[in-house]
Design goal:
The chain has 379 residues and is α/β, with parallel strands linked by helices. The protein has helices at 43-53, 66-78, 89-104, 116-119, 124-127, 145-149, 174-186, 198-205, 209-213, 239-251, 260-272, 277-294, 317-331, 363-378; strands at residues 17-20, 26-29, 31-32, 82-86, 108-111, 132-135, 157-161, 190-195, 218-222, 233-237, 298-300, 308-313, 333-334, 340-341, 348-353. The protein folds into two domains: 7-48 and 275-378, Aspartate Aminotransferase, domain 1 (Alpha-Beta Complex); 63-272, Type I PLP-dependent aspartate aminotransferase-like (Major domain) (Aspartate Aminotransferase, domain 2), CATH 3.40.640.10. Helix content is 41%, strand content 17%. Strands 4-10-9-8-7-5-6 form a seven-stranded mixed sheet, with helices on both faces. α1 (43-53) packs across α11 (260-272), α3 (89-104) packs across α10 and α13 (317-331) crosses α14 (363-378). The protein is globular, with a radius of gyration of 21 Å.
Length: 379
C-alpha cells in the first residue's frame, strides 16, 4: 500500500487523530496538551496551512525562495551577519562545535550533564567528529559559574541550553549567564547557544532576541519545537563562521535542495506563533499554579520561567502510563506524550509546553485531569 491507502485509519477534518496505545491498539485523540501531538501535526492539517499561506508564485529556491527568506529573517532577528538552514538541529549543533574545534585546535566542549548533544543524539559529537564532552555541575541543577571555573581542560566551546529542557526548562539569571560566557571566553573557548527553545527563553529574559544572541559566537534555533513547523533548524553567526558551517553541512549530507516546505512552515510560525509566546508563558504560570494548589503533583520550576515546565507525580511511571491510557480511551484527552522516572523512587514526571492548543485547557481543568490521573494510578 502507498501513503494514505489505509484510509480508514486516518483522521478526517482535522478534529481527531489516531494514536497507538501500548497494547498495539488504536485510540482517538480529540484534545491534547502535548505540543507535538499527532492531533496537531496531521499532514493534511499542515499542508492546508501551507496552501492557505503560500503565494501561488512562490519559487522553490533562489534568493526569493522560502529558505533564503528564512535565513535572512533569522539573521535579522538575531542580529547576526548570516544564518544557514539545516535539516536538523542535531546536525547544526555538531557542525557549530566542529567549526570551533577546527579553529582552536581543541577537541573538548563543556555543557550541562543533561545537554541534548549527549543525552539525545547518541554522542554524535564523538562518533562523527572526534570531540570530547566535559559535563559541568550536577545533573539536577543549572550549570553554575563556580562549577564551570573548575574545568581545567582547554575547551573549544561551552554550550548553554536555554532553557535547560531536561530539568524543567530552567534558566540562569541574565547576569549569571553573562558571567559564565565571560569566563569561557577568557579561557579561549567559544560560546555556543543551544537555542532550540530560544523563542520561549526570551519570555523570561524579556530582552530583544539580538541582545540575547549577541552573548554567543554561534546560535542554533529550532524551526519546529515551539514554532510549530515541520522540521529543520538554523545556525546563525558571523559570515566566515556560516561559510565554514556550509562546507560541513554539505559533507554531512545536509545541503538538501527543495527544503522549501520546512522553511515555509517555519516562516508561518514566526508570523503566527512567535508573537504569542508571552501569552503562552502566562498561561503556563496559571496552569502550574492550579496544579500545585489543587493536586498532589508539583511543577518544576514553580512558577515556570517559560511556556515549558515539568509535572512531577507521586506515582510510579507504569501506573501513570496505565491511567493516562484510560483517560485517553474514555475521554479522548491526551495529557502527556512521554513519561520519565524521577529521581525519587515510585515517582515520575512529564513535560508540558504550552502552545496554541494547550490554551484551550483552562488551568482548573488541567488540575482536575491530573487529579483524576493520580486517582486512577493509585487504584
Amino acid at each position: 500500500m502507498g501513503i494514505g491507502d489505509d484510509r480508514n485509519s486516518l483522521p478526517k477534518g482535522g478534529a481527531a487523530a489516531r494514536h497507538r496505545n501500548g497494547q498495539g491498539g488504536r485510540v482517538t485523540i480529540r484534545r491534547s496538551l502535548v505540543l507535538h501531538s499527532p492531533l496537531h501535526r496531521a499532514p493534511h492539517r499542515m499542508l492546508r496551512r501551507l496552501l492557505e499561506r503560500l503565494p501561488e508564485d512562490t519559487q522553490p529556491g533562489g534568493e526569493d525562495g522560502p529558505v533564503a527568506v528564512l535565513e535572512r529573517r533569522i539573521a535579522a532577528l538575531l542580529g547576526t551577519e548570516a544564518a544557514l538552514f539545516f535539516p536538523s538541529g542535531t546536525m547544526a549543533q555538531q557542525v557549530a562545535l566542529r567549526v570551533h574545534a577546527e579553529r582552536s585546535g581543541r577537541h573538548a566542549f563543556a555543557a550541562h550533564p543533561q545537554t541534548h548533544l549527549d543525552v539525545w543524539e547518541q554522542r554524535g559529537y564523538a562518533v562523527v567528529h572526534g570531540l570530547r564532552f566535559h559535563p559541568v555541575g550536577g545533573r539536577y541543577e543549572l550549570m553554575s559559574t563556580a562549577a564551570l571555573a573548575t574545568v581545567g581542560e582547554p575547551l573549544a566551546a561551552v554550550v548553554w541550553e536555554l532553557p535547560q529542557r531536561d530539568i524543567g526548562g530552567q534558566l540562569p539569571g541574565w547576569e549569571q549567564l553573562r558571567e559564565q560566557v565571560d569566563l569561557a571566553r577568557g579561557r579561549g573557548a567559544a560560546a555556543h547557544l543551544d537555542g532550540a527553545r530560544l523563542w520561549e527563553a526570551q519570555t523570561f529574559y524579556e530582552r530583544p532576541f539580538d541582545e540575547i544572541a549577541a552573548l554567543f559566537d554561534t546560535v542554533y534555533v529550532s524551526l519546529y519545537k515551539s514554532l510549530g513547523g515541520v522540521r529543520g533548524a538554523v545556525l546563525a553567526s558571523d559570515l566566515p563562521t556560516v561559510t565554514e558551517a556550509a562546507g560541513w553541512r554539505q559533507r554531512l549530507g545536509g545541503g538538501i535542495s527543495d527544503a522549501w516546505p520546512l522553511a515555509a512552515a517555519a516562516l508561518i510560525g514566526l508570523d503566527d506563533v512567535l508573537p504569542r509566546m508571552s501569552a503562552y508563558r502566562d498561561h503556563a504560570v496559571a496552569v502550574a499554579a492550579a496544579i500545585n494548589h489543587g493536586t498532589a503533583a508539583r511543577t518544576l520550576p514553580d512558577p515556570p520561567q517559560t511556556p515549558l515546565f515539568h509535572v512531577h507525580l507521586p506515582a510510579p511511571a507504569a501506573a501513570v502510563e496505565r491511567a493516562g491510557a484510560e483517560l485517553l480511551a474514555e475521554h479522548g484527552v491526551q495529557l502527556f506524550g512521554r513519561l520519565w522516572p524521577a529521581a525519587v523512587p515510585d515517582t515520575c514526571r512529564f513535560e508540558i509546553t504550552i502552545g496554541e492548543h494547550a490554551m484551550d485547557f483552562a488551568p482548573t481543568e488541567v488540575a482536575t485531569l491530573i487529579d483524576d490521573l493520580l486517582r486512577r494510578a493509585r487504584d
